[in-house]
Amino acid sequence: TDWISKLIDQVWPYVNLALQDYVKTSLMPLLADKLGTIVDQLTIDKIDLGEKVVKLDGITVHPFREASEQIALDADVSYDGDLVLSATFATIPFGVADVKFAGRIRFLLGPLLPRTPIVGGVTAFFLRAPTFGYTLTGEAQKLDQLKPQINSALDGLIQANVVLPNRFVAVLDKESVDENVLKNPNPLAILFVTLLRVSGLRNTDIGRNNKSDVVVKATAGKFEFKTPTFQDVTDTDLNIRFDIPLNENEDVFLKLQVLDEDIRAGSGTTYEALGHTSINISHVEGSE
After folding, report:
1. How many Cα atoms occupy the beta-carbon half-sphere of 106 within 13 Å?
2. Fewer Cβ within 10 Å of end Cβ, the chain: N or C?
C-alpha cells in the first residue's frame, strides 16, 4: 500500500480544493433539504483538510468475474486528521475539529475497455455506513440543541451518497460509459425470502383474550420490508414472500425483527421487540 499512500499524498491538495467546491455547490443545498430554512443562517467561513491524509489499508482484490467486466477491490479507509472548519450560525461563531471516520469501502473499476483508458469508470461505496465523529469548538455550547439534527443530517448525507445501494461514480470514458448505468446497475442476483411461521411468541398485551399484534420487519442494506399486522397471535402461519435485489452481497446481512405493534390514541404507533435474527447473505447458496 506504499504506492497508494504516496498517490494520496500527491492528490491531497486537489482533494482539498474539490472539498471546498463540494461544500458550496452540493453540501449546503443537501443540508437545506435536511434542516430546512435554518441553513440560511449558516455561513461557512473556512474549510481546510490540513496535512493528514486518508489512509487505505487491508486491500483485498476479488476474483475477476468476466461477466461483470469489472475489477472489484475492498479496503479499510480511515481518517483521523487535522481538518479545520470555521463557520457562523446566526451571530454565533463556532468550529469543527477532531474529525474522524472509518469504514470498509469497495471500489469497482470498470467496465473494462479494449482501448485506453482501459477502465471506463470508478465506482465507490460503503457496504455498511462508516463510523464518524467530530468536536464542535468555539461558542459551540450554544448550539448543543442542534447537534442531534446535525448528526442526523450528516448520517443521512452519508447514507444517501456512498452507502450501498447508493454509489459515488467517476466516469473516465464519457463516450462509451453511461454514468446512470454505473449508479444503477442491474442486480447480480435476486434473493427470494419466504416467511413461513412465527411460534412461541410471548404475549406483551394486557387482557384476558388479548395477545400480541405481530409485525415482522426485514432489512438488508438499504432494503426494507414490513409484513401486515397479525392481530392477537402468539403462533400463526405467515406464508409471505418478498424479493431482495442484490448488487453486492459480501458483508450484507438479512436482519429480521418480530415486533408487537401497539397503536394508541395521542401517542401514535409503538413497537416492542419479541425476537430477532440475522443471516449473512453471502453464505446463502443459490442457483442460476
Report:
1. 22
2. C
Question: Which positions ≥6 away from 283 have C-beta within 8 Å?
Answer: none
Pair 233, 216: CB distance under 8 Å: no
SS3 267: coil
CA separation for the pair 204, 74 (Å, rounded): 44
One-letter amino acid of 97: A
Higher pLDDT, 119 or 263: 119
**HSE-CB for 9 with a 13 A CA cutoff:** 6
Q: Which amino acid is at 161?
A: N
d(CA 168, CA 55): 18
Q: Write down the residue that cell numbers 401514535 correspond to.
A: 268
For 74-128, write each residue's pLDDT tens digit: 999 999 989 888 888 888 888 888 889 999 999 999 899 988 889 999 999 988 8
